[in-house]
Amino acid sequence: MAINLVIAVTDGDWFDMLRQQPNLTEVNFWAPSAAKFRALQPGELFLFKLHAPRNVIVGGGIFAYANALPCSLAWEALRSALRSRDARPNCAISTGRSERSE
Q1: What integer pLDDT is reported at residue 50 of this predicted model?
Q2: What is the secondary structure of the chain as a DSSP string?
Q3: Taking Cα atoms as reference points, which of 96, 101, 100, 102 lies closest to residue 42?
Q4: What is the pTM of this model?
Q5: What is the pLDDT of residue 15?
Q6: What are the structural domains of the chain?
Q7: Most confident region among 54-58, 63-67, 77-81, 90-94 by mean pLDDT
Q8: Residue 39, C-beta contacts closer than 8 angstroms, at least 6 positions apart
């Protein structure tokens, strides 16, 4: 039986901010790409790894879905869900959602 998963590199500050919110039931992620995210099907595993020098897998979840959004719309949707106004990405085109798992 094959297991399909993705390991995505994420920002340490972003991870630390999410970690301080223990009641999150889902996390959002984005990639600076206009290409639709097709690496996973709903129900498959999505893992988060920190950039060097930390270089470790810090969490993961079950992939739910992905959408392509304009930067401004993605930011408006994600910042309210995450209660953060100071971690604005340069671009948020391909977004997705994963149920939180620790």
Answers
A1: 92
A2: ----EEEEEE-HHHHHHHHT-TT-SEEEEEES-SSPP-S--TTSEEEEEEPTTT--EEEEEEEEEEEE--HHHHHHHHHHHHT-SS---S---EEEEEEEE-
A3: 96
A4: 0.68
A5: 84
A6: 5-101 (2.30.130)
A7: 54-58
A8: 6
